[in-house]
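Team,

Forwarding the record for the chain on the shared tracking sheet. I've put the sequence and predicted structure together so nobody has to dig through attachments.
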Amino acid sequence: MSRTALLVIDVQNDYFDNGSFPLWNTKQVLKEILNAIQTAKEQDAAVILVQHVAESESPLFAEGSEGVKLHQAILDAAPDAPIITKTHADAFQETNLTQVLEELEVDRLIICGMMTQNCVTHTAISDAADLYQVSILPDACTTREELLHFIALEAIQAKVTYTDIQHAFERV
């Protein structure tokens, strides 16, 4: 049996308007991510949340801070989703993500989240991701500015595919 998983990376309070490092277009991206979560659930795809926690004192994602928390709308949309806690850009590095994907019998990853040029791309091109068919939802990702978002996506286009939510969960 094969299965698709939607990997929702670092949709955390620090990246929103009142956070310590607000990103570009977060309101629209949050809507797209919530739409992707709903579509994943309708298609019986797994939803996995990823949360970055700073290893040491940091102004961003400080352990125990309000900013480190996953956005409440994401938690409400996927209350039973496993949460992978990471300390590196690559969500596979020193986490149990591979184990969770194996247990869920996942062979396809659809990635969305924050920040495009860092955690999204590093996870998508991770050596560990080579075991999966990887797609990114560009409209459900963001970073500090629009140009950086598009540069990051362009840089990894040879390794991953891009899709929209409407087509993301179709088998190819």
